[in-house]
Sequence to fold (279 residues):
Amino acid sequence: FAQPGSLTTVIAVASGKGGVGKSSVTVNLALALAAQGRTVGVLDADIYGHSVPAMLGVADARPTAVEDMIMPVPTHGLKVISIGMLKPRRDQVVAWRGPILDRALTQMLADVYWGDLDYLLLDLPPGTGDVAISLGQKLPNAEVLVVTTPQTAAAEVAERAGTMASMLNQRVIGVVENMSYLELTCPHCGETHREEIFGAGGGADVARTLSARLGYPVPLLAQIPLDARLRASGDSGTPLVGTDPEQPAARVLADLAGTLARRGRSLLGRQLGLSPTGR
Ligand code: ADP
Fold:
């Protein structure tokens, strides 16, 4: 994936802190990209949460080994591998650091038979720790999507995650604000109203700050509403984008996939313009 000629777009999904919906965005975005005809792999590198397998209905699945390669787990049309799948038991804590953690990450990138992928989505642990640094060094060409809630406290730490990605020479392609509002319908008059449970403006603030700090435009790409069905679909291992694509939260995620795919095409165009002799 790190080779200059690789046709796989690697997108690392990062956040400043946990619980902002980074994994929910990763799995639904993966499904939305697959629904648009792309081949998508998901690498769950969240050593603290590793909730991706459960959200994709493969909590107890284990990858199989074929000769010296590891086969990713197929689910919902995606290929999935999680750091949690490398543990002997599901309830075991991943207490890896330094070289062992680094080895596990290398294994998930290099020893897994991913095949030809259009996209590899990486679910990073929250914050700016070892995994983000290690993957940043291994995949300097990865693009980074920063997930935050509208809350000021979440936005401040999200900026740090974006800044660190750029220190590792990864390009921050945009910000996704999750849990932006709850749409309520008045039982009496039927009018709808948006309740901003976590405040407002965090996503735009992160986008503005990162644009100024990194010196290129970092847009706010999506604002996903709060929706109990998004939570429930994650709990049941059937992501909302697949089960209920008409729901507003699912539509925003599908639009985000469309935005990223359009970007991908324009990048691909640029690559085709290079002549081999010009290298
Ligand atoms: P993170 O990966 O940042 O720790 P998760 O994706 O695990 O966050 O989300 C934390 C919890 O919030 C999960 O139970 C998830 O289902 C729920 N959640 C995430 N986004 C939303 C949303 N927009 N509306 C309702 N619940 C959500």
